[in-house]
Design a protein that fits this description.
The complex is a heterodimer of chains A (199) and B (257). By secondary structure, chain A is an all-alpha fold. Chain A contains eleven helices and no strands. Chain B has twelve helices and two strands, in the order H-H-H-E-E-H-H-H-H-H-H-H-H-H. The chains are: A mainly alpha (199), B mainly alpha (257).
C-alpha cells in the first residue's frame, strides 16, 4: 500500500474484527516507509533496530486494541496516529530506563496511550499469568474465545474450528467461557485483580 | 432466568453484545443484586484476560513476520512492501513420477509416514498436561498408530472435541491414522485442522501432513509447492530437511515431463 492509508476504512476493518481485521493489520504492517520512520525516530534517540522493531510491534498492538475498544479518534491519518503511539511507547520506555528523553513535543495522539489495567496485565509478570491461565484453558478453547472476542461470527468460528455449525460453535464457546470463569475462580492472583476491578 | 441464562447475559453484556431493553434490564438487576454484581466483575475480568491473550497472540504473530524491507533510491530511503508468497515456481510433474516419489516417501524409509508417527510418540510423552483423559487417549492412539492399528486409533481420537485442550494434537494424530488406512481425504481434513494450531510444531506438521495427502491424492498444485518451499525454509519445522528433500525431488521430476 502506498501513500496515506484510508484511515476510516482501515479503522473500520479492524473494528469489525474477523478476517478483515487481519487483512487491515497486515496492510498497516507493510505500509510504505512507516517502519523506516519509526526506526529513524528510535535510532535517533538511543535505540537500535531491535528496539525499533519492538516499538513498532507494540504500537500496532496498541492501535489494534484502541480501535477495537472504541478509544481511537479519527484525527489525521492512521500512520500519524501509529507513529505518535510509537513515539509515546519509546519515550515511556526511555523514561523507565532513566535514559535520554525525546526532545520534540509529542503529537496530540500520545495522550491516548496512558496505561490502563490491561497494560498492567501485559507487563512481564502479568504476561506469565495470562500465558499460564490460557495454557490451562487449552489451545482450542483459547482460540474459540479469541475468535469470539475478535468478532468472528459463529459460522466463521465453526469453519475455523472444523465444527459442523454455528450453533455447535456457540455451545463450545459457552463451555469454554465457563471453563475460563472456573479458572479465574481458582486463581488467587486473579482474585486480587477482581477486587481491584471494584475499586 | 436460571443460572445458565444469567451467565449468558452477563457474558454478552461484558462483551458489549447487549443493546436496548435487554441491556437496561440486566444492568438494573446488577445494580440491585450485589451477588450478581460480584459475578459480573468476574465476567469483566474474563474479557480483560481475553484482550491480554489476544495482544500476546498478535505479538507472537508480528514477531514471526519479516520486517518491511528498506530500499535505497536516489530520492531517499523507501520502504518496499514484502510479499511472503512471492515465490513463483510452476510444477507439472507426471502422475507416474509423483506416485514413484510418494511411494518412496511413505514406504519404509527415513522419511516415511511411519517415521513421522514414531516422532509423535516421543512428543506425546512430553505433553502431559491438565487434561489427563485426552492425554491418555493421545498416548494410546499414538501407540496404536505405531503398531499399525489405526482403525482403533481413529475410534479413540474422534471424540476429542474442539473445546478440548488437545484438539489440535488429536487432529494431527487422526490425520496420521487416516493416512495409514489410506483414507487420504479424511487424513487431509484432519491435517488441515491441526495446521490451525497455535503450537508451531503441531501446525507445521499438520501442514506437511496435508501436503503429503495432496501428493497421494494427485492434487498437487502451485500453492502446495509454495507451502512446501516455506516449510523447507522454516528453521522451526522439525522435518525441514525432509521437506527440502521432497522439494528437490519434485523439482527434478519437473525435468522429466
Amino acid at each position: 500500500m502506498n501513500g496515506s492509508l484510508e484511515t476510516v476504512d482501515l479503522a473500520a476493518a479492524i473494528r469489525s474484527g474477523g478476517p478483515k481485521r487481519e487483512q487491515a493489520l497486515s496492510s498497516l504492517y507493510n505500509v510504505t516507509g512507516l517502519f523506516f520512520r519509526i526506526k529513524q525516530m528510535v535510532t535517533n534517540h538511543g535505540g537500535n533496530e531491535e528496539d525499533a522493531r519492538d516499538v513498532f510491534h507494540e504500537g500496532i498492538i496498541t492501535l489494534d486494541r484502541k480501535i477495537r475498544q472504541d478509544e481511537y479518534e479519527d484525527r489525521g491519518t492512521i500512520e500519524s496516529y501509529l507513529f505518535g503511539v510509537c513515539r509515546f511507547i519509546w519515550s515511556n520506555q526511555q523514561r523507565k530506563n532513566k535514559r535520554v528523553e525525546l526532545k520534540e513535543d509529542f503529537t496530540p495522539y500520545d495522550q491516548s496511550t496512558g496505561e490502563n489495567p490491561l497494560d498492567t496485565m501485559l507487563n512481564n509478570e502479568g504476561q506469565n499469568l495470562v500465558a499460564n491461565l490460557f495454557g490451562q484453558l487449552g489451545e482450542s478453547c483459547s482460540k474459540i474465545l479469541s475468535l469470539w472476542k475478535l468478532s468472528y461470527s459463529m459460522n466463521e468460528i465453526a469453519e475455523e474450528m472444523g465444527l459442523p455449525s454455528g450453533d455447535n460453535a456457540r455451545k463450545h464457546k459457552f463451555r469454554c467461557y465457563q471453563k475460563l470463569l472456573g479458572l479465574i475462580d481458582n486463581s488467587p492472583e486473579l482474585a486480587l485483580n477482581l477486587k481491584n476491578l471494584g475499586q | 432466568m436460571n443460572t445458565s441464562e444469567y451467565s449468558e447475559k452477563l457474558m454478552a453484556l461484558a462483551n458489549k453484545e447487549l443493546f436496548g431493553d435487554e441491556k437496561m434490564q440486566i444492568e438494573k438487576e446488577i445494580k440491585e443484586n450485589p451477588a450478581l454484581a460480584e459475578e459480573f466483575k468476574k465476567h469483566l475480568l474474563a474479557q480483560e484476560l481475553l484482550e491480554a491473550f489476544i495482544s500476546q497472540d498478535l505479538k507472537k504473530k508480528l514477531n514471526a513476520f519479516p520486517l518491511p524491507q528498506e530500499k535505497n533510491e536516489s530520492s531517499g530511503a523507501v520502504i518496499k512492501k514484502m510479499n511472503p508468497y512471492r515465490y513463483k515456481w510452476a510444477i507439472a510433474a507426471s502422475v507416474a513420477l509423483i506416485l514413484g516419489i510418494s511411494s518412496y516417501l511413505f514406504v519404509g524409509n527415513e522419511f516415511s509416514y511411519q517415521n513421522l508417527a514414531d516422532n509423535y510418540v516421543l512428543q506425546m510423552q512430553e505433553v502431559r498436561g491438565t487434561n489427563m483423559v485426552a492425554d491418555d487417549i493421545i498416548e494410546k492412539a499414538s501407540s496404536l498408530i505405531s503398531n499399525n492399528k489405526s482403525e482403533m486409533a481413529i475410534t479413540l481420537l474422534t471424540p476429542i472435541t474442539p473445546d478440548d485442550d488437545r484438539f489440535f494434537m488429536g487432529q494431527l494424530l487422526l490425520g496420521n491414522a487416516y493416512y495409514q488406512t489410506k483414507n487420504f481425504s479424511a487424513a487431509s481434513n484432519a491435517f488441515i485442522q491441526s495446521s490451525k494450531s497455535a503450537d508451531e510444531e503441531v501446525k507445521y506438521k499438520g501442514q506437511y501432513g496435508f501436503l503429503l495427502c495432496e501428493l497421494k491424492m494427485k492434487s498437487w498444485s502451485e500453492e502446495n509447492q509454495k507451502l512446501l518451499k516455506e516449510l523447507s525454509d522454516n528453521e522451526f519445522f522439525i522435518n525441514k530437511m525432509e521437506a527440502a528433500d521432497l522439494l528437490q525431488k519434485l523439482k527434478i521430476a519437473k525435468y522429466f515431463n
